[in-house]
Write a structure and sequence with these properties.
Blueprint: E1 9-10, E2 15-16, E3 30-33, E4 44-45, E5 56-57, E6 110-113, E7 121-123, E8 129-139, E9 145-155, E10 168-171, E11 177-178, E12 180-187, E13 202-213, E14 217-226, E15 241-244, E16 250-253, E17 257-261, E18 269-274, E19 283-287, E20 293-297, E21 303-304, E22 318-321, E23 323-324, E24 327-331, E25 333-338, E26 342-352, E27 372-381, E28 387-395, E29 414-416, E30 418-424, E31 431-436, E32 439-442, E33 449-460, E34 466-476, E35 482-487, E36 494-498, E37 502-508, E38 517-522, E39 525-531, E40 535-537, E41 541-553, H1 560-573, E42 577-578, H2 581-587, H3 600-617, H4 630-633, H5 671-681, H6 685-688, H7 691-702, H8 746-752, H9 756-772, H10 804-822, H11 827-846, E43 847-848, E44 851-852, E45 862-865, H12 868-885, H13 887-908, E46 911-912, E47 915-916, E48 926-931, E49 934-940, H14 953-956, H15 958-966, H16 974-981, H17 990-996, H18 1003-1021
Antiparallel strand pairs: 1-2, 3-6, 4-5, 7-11, 8-14, 8-42, 9-13, 10-11, 10-14, 12-13, 15-16, 16-17, 17-18, 18-19, 20-21, 20-30, 22-26, 23-24, 25-26, 26-27, 27-28, 28-41, 29-40, 30-39, 31-32, 31-36, 33-34, 33-38, 34-35, 36-37, 37-41, 38-39, 43-44, 45-48, 46-47, 48-49
Helix pairs in contact: 3-17, 3-18, 5-7, 5-18, 9-10, 10-11, 10-12, 12-13, 12-15, 12-18, 13-15, 15-18
Length: 1024
């Protein structure tokens, strides 16, 4: 029996308040003894085996279920949580023995439970289904997660040969069939769609399912494949689906709510009706009105809001839906997901107002345009009236031409007063609430006005030092504002509104670090303000956000924190289905990530990455209570700044405010090791604490973003660092340095939590690549440095080293691979073709006897190779991925990993008594004489600039461990490598450079950790 402290029931209606509100009817298909453990003092009975949540609420008499079976006694046995959804679907719901339910004779009354639709349980699965994968879902929070829709992508091996999802089902630990949703993200051997796509096995599959998980627990499910099309054993009254209406609108139905969508309306939603008791009688709780949805207060106070009604795209001085690129007469609204657990709809729009028009281009022609756009994804959930919102506001002003060093990347910024999404409510609001942590504030009865919870811009405090400014205040319609709370960083802030029958509440993800943002609630509206105070938005930047607005049956004040705690967890700690490590390795989407073996390398790596992560985030993620974390040390506060990392340890910097912060544009890509460690360990912190928000910042804000306008840098970094002024982080007026779009982790961010807005960026990166690399191979001599197709520049002096062109090429290849693998249009094949062309040139010009020589032009008498670090910082991983996009080319480039490993072990790493000398000088520069297609006389050159620093020696030895999985080395190097990795001296600098002294992720440890996990896995593959 579960204690009352774990219940979130409202006994007035027996409604359960979880992340998505669903009634608590129909039970699962199992047998559970109830009556003999029930007593009058009990408050609930757990009548199910599929979750940790009690379903049957008990009365104070005999604590058993009304209507289960008449017992001849006038008084009821108790109340089955109403309404009884399963009646009429599977009848009866509860089967009992002929005597009284509340046995006095000590015998057992078995209750047979058939379905539990709120938990997503459908009944017994078909008998012809076999398990093909195991799914794990971890809740690392200290509270129960109730009926949350967990979703993520999982990789499947090509050998599985799974071509479609129509015969897939998911079962839980009890073997019951649970409702799931499947969306194919990519396929092996080519693009997602197009010629012969249906014959290519699924590579990444997004799975969504309803999960209830106890505090700090892991649930286990099975993905099964059936031999025939499975038929649902019962209809799902809570299914999410979208219906086309005759007038061109669409209706999303979720069982307890209906949402009418108008594709011409920039807010999308026309109205929302709810019926939480599934009686067939709906109440309207939302009606579109003037000002609903996206709102902008631009320069000089120009207000741009929605109209009261929309029937076309032809409107001025307002917000409008953008026209589709492929059909200018149609609104740019796309249905992304169609259910049965989630329905997602994407809308792209423009803030159109003559007072805001600007000539944003440098094309020498006066052509003012509307510079401010937005993209929004609205998501609707099975059995819920909630609305998920991803909103990106863009300043799309930016360069259209390939102007290189002459471009100023700070002169097209814009001063914005406010950007918000307005959500009108018709629930007869009577009381407003706002909260930070456990502090809950409310308005008095009869109050007219709004309650605001905001993370305002910080300032230098009166005692010196930077002071964040979290505030909660009442703002009456007349009279002065009333301050309820003034603090530093808000903690899990939310606003709520209660009416006679319904509640509404809302949150913005990561709000405390992303000033200025605010949540404002009135008696008939919730405002999600992603720019809540005047803000300078940098050139070609977007402000990204994620929010959720919940509409529920009335939630008493005492239960608001519990409900919002789960809402916060969904936004910032969403449940993620994943594979066990052994099954992940079988998919071979990465080099081997390891097993259960222990090693000095694994222990050292694990300690290092956990410490670096903790020093970035701070206490309590780091166990030291006095550790504030890098963000607080460097004052990394701001919607255009957080959670970016530093170039050097904060102990070496003088930072007194966010304006002193030189955000280094994901320098050396700490996103990659964090997400790879999530795949290895399954720890959600490596997704949610830093990596996923950082991926969002890069994709939408830090990297140049001119929206859907095809420009030469759209989707890439203009430089690293930036100007130390508001909004100009990641932008400089006088510096262009291509090659700092460290994007190796972006694909993993997408598959872990698929975001359709990433796909827009992948598409624009393709067009930007066309602008940047606009000179084909026959014009090699006319290329600028950033257009060279090379891994490392080849200079006559052995002292020269310039990786910029190589990093630029690698990052464009990675971007094109994202486009080729994940886009659904013909554009994907164009991206794949572009990759093939780049790699063809690399192979034809630079690969000699399996060695990839430096330079853009073919080598003549010498082949120099000094690209070890580029292989370890992404090129080897790209080659691994290339096996699904262009297998033959991948084999050729895979051999370059093998040959570079041979050069390293033969000429770069000295030996002592037959073992690797871990304290000697190592080199990463190799030179060979070239004669025709052959190389001879190879040697390693030790000179300043080419030595391998002590802290990077473990990383250097990772390359042969990757090479063993891509090809065949001349001998078995496992004993040699294992002996080296077992020496503690190899890691002599890690304890300081990668932990205590670094204060979190910086350039150096990010460079090394990108590939160390492949060393951990590769060493596990070596025999003991």
């Amino acid at each position: 029996m579960l204690s009352v402290g774990r219940l979130l029931y409202l006994f007035a209606g027996f409604a359960l308040f979880a992340v998505g509100c669903v009634p608590s009817p129909g039970r699962i298909g199992t047998v559970d003894a109830l009556a003999d453990s029930a007593a009058a003092s009990d408050t609930a009975v757990d009548a199910q085996l599929d979750s940790f949540t009690p379903d049957i609420a008990l009365d104070g008499d005999d604590a058993l279920a009304d209507g289960a079976s008449p017992d001849g006694v006038e008084a009821p046995d108790g109340d089955l949580a109403s309404p009884d959804l399963a009646d009429g679907i599977v009848d009866p719901d509860l089967v009992v023995d002929p005597d009284l339910l509340a046995d006095a004779d000590g015998t057992t009354d078995a209750v047979v439970v058939t379905v539990d639709l709120p938990e997503g349980v459908l009944g017994l699965p078909p008998s012809d289904c076999a398990t093909i994968r195991t799914l794990l879902v971890t809740n690392d929070r200290s509270f129960e997660r109730n009926r949350e829709i967990a979703f993520s992508g999982i990789p499947l091996p090509a050998s599985l040969g799974l071509l479609d999802t129509k015969r897939l089902i998911v079962t839980n630990e009890s073997g019951a069939w649970v409702r799931a949703q499947f969306d194919v993200l990519s396929r092996w051997g080519g693009t997602l769609e197009g010629t012969n796509a249906a014959t290519r096995p699924i590579r990444w599959l997004q799975i969504a399912l309803v999960v209830t998980a106890g505090d700090k627990s892991t649930r286990s499910f099975e993905l099964r494949q059936c031999t025939s099309d499975p038929q649902l054993p019962t209809s799902d009254a809570l299914e999410a689906r979208i219906v086309d209406e005759s007038d061109g609108t669409k209706t999303v139905e979720t069982g307890v709510a209906r949402f009418r969508l108008n594709p011409y309306n920039p807010a999308l939603i026309e109205w929302i009706d709810v019926d939480f008791q599934l009686t067939g009688s709906f109440d309207r709780v939302y009606t579109h009105r003037v000002g609903s949805g996206p709102l902008l207060v631009g320069p000089k106070g120009t207000l741009v809001t929605t109209l009261g009604a929309y029937t076309s795209l032809d409107h001025k001085q307002t917000v409008v839906v953008a026209p589709r690129v492929d059909n200018l007469s149609q609104p740019d609204v796309r249905i992304i997901e169609r259910g049965p657990l989630k329905v997602s709809v994407l809308v792209r729009g423009v803030f159109r107002h003559s007072a805001l028009e600007r000539d944003c281009t440098n094309n020498g022609v006066s052509d003012p345009t509307d510079p401010f756009g937005y993209s929004a994804v609205l998501t609707f959930f099975r059995g819920s009236a909630d609305v998920g919102l991803q909103l990106n506001f863009r300043n799309e002003c930016g360069s259209l031409s390939n102007s290189g060093y002459t471009e100023d990347f700070t002169d097209e910024g814009a001063d914005i007063d406010r950007v918000s999404w307005e959500f009108p409510l018709d629930i007869g609001g009577t009381k407003l609430f706002g909260a930070s942590s456990t502090q809950l504030f409310s308005s008095d009865n009869g109050f007219a006005g709004t309650l605001r919870v905001g993370q305002d811009k910080g300032s230098i405090g009166v005692a010196g030092g930077w002071k964040p400014a979290g505030t909660i205040q009442l703002e009456p319609d007349s009279g002065p504002s009333q301050s309820l709370l003034e603090t530093g960083l808000l903690i899990e802030p939310y606003v709520a509104l209660n009416g006679p029958s319904y509640s509404a509440f809302a949150q913005l993800a990561y709000l405390p670090y992303r000033e200025p943002m605010a949540l404002v609630v009135g008696l008939d509206n919730i405002s999600l303000q992603i720019v809540s105070q005047p803000l300078h938005v940098g050139e070609a930047k977007a402000i990204w956000s994620a929010a959720r607005i919940a509409i529920r049956p009335l939630v008493p004040q005492g239960l608001l924190r519990d409900a919002n705690q789960r809402l916060h967890a969904f936004l910032q700690r969403g449940l993620l289905p994943r594979l066990p490590l052994a099954e992940l390795n079988e998919a071979k989407v990465f080099p081997y990530l390891g097993n259960e073996k222990s090693s000095v390398l694994k222990a050292t790596y694990t300690a290092a990455i956990n410490k670096v992560h903790g020093l970035t985030v701070g206490y309590p993620v780091d166990p030291n209570p006095s550790e504030p974390g890098q963000w607080k040390r460097a004052f990394t506060f701001g919607s255009q700044l957080w959670p970016d990392t530093q170039l050097f340890p904060t102990s070496e910097l003088t930072i007194t405010s966010p304006l002193d912060n030189v955000a280094y544009t994901n320098d050396s890509d700490p996103v990659t090791p964090e997400l790879l460690e999530y795949f290895r360990s399954g720890d959600p912190k490596f997704v949610w604490d830093f990596a996923l928000p950082q991926a969002n910042l890069m994709m939408f804000t830090a990297w140049y973003n001119t929206g859907m306008n095809h420009t030469w840098l759209n989707g890439f970094a203009t430089n690293r660092g930036g100007t130390q002024s508001e909004g100009d982080w990641h932008r400089k007026a006088d510096l262009f340095t291509l090659g700092f779009s460290f994007n190796g982790g972006i694909a993993n961010a997408y598959v872990i939590r698929p975001n359709p807005l990433f796909l827009d960026r992948f598409a624009q990166q393709y067009y930007a690549s066309l602008f940047t690399y606009d000179k084909p191979r026959v014009q090699q001599g006319d290329r600028s440095w950033y257009q060279l197709v090379e891994l490392l520049a080849d200079f006559t002096s052995d002292q020269s080293y310039d990786p910029a062109s190589g990093f630029a090429l690698l990052q464009h290849l990675e971007a094109l691979a994202n486009c080729a693998e994940f886009l659904r249009a013909d554009l994907a094949e164009s991206c794949r073709t572009a990759i093939v062309d780049f790699v063809d040139e690399l192979i034809a010009d630079n690969v000699v006897s399996g060695v990839l020589c430096n330079g853009d032009l073919p080598p003549t008498t010498e082949c120099r190779n000094s690209s070890l670090y580029l292989y370890l910082q992404g090129f080897a991983a790209f080659i691994w991925r290339l096996r699904t996009l262009s297998p033959e080319q991948a084999m050729t480039l895979g051999e370059t990993v093998v040959q570079l490993s041979e050069l390293l072990l033969a000429h770069g790493v000295p030996r002592l008594a037959g073992q690797i000398d871990v304290t000697a000088d190592w080199t990463r520069y190799f030179r060979c004489a070239k004669s025709g297609s052959l190389l001879a006389g190879c040697e390693g050159l030790t000179a300043d600039g080419w030595d391998i620093f002590q802290d990077r020696k473990p990383q250097a030895l990772v390359l042969p461990l990757i090479a063993m999985q891509l090809g065949t080395l001349s001998i078995d190097y496992c004993p040699l490598l294992k002996a080296a990795f077992d020496k503690s001296e190899l890691y002599s600098l890690w304890s300081t450079l990668y932990t205590t002294d670094s204060n979190g992720w910086v350039e150096g440890n990010s460079e090394v950790m990108q590939s160390m996990i492949f060393g951990v896995g590769g060493l596990d593959l070596c025999a003991p």
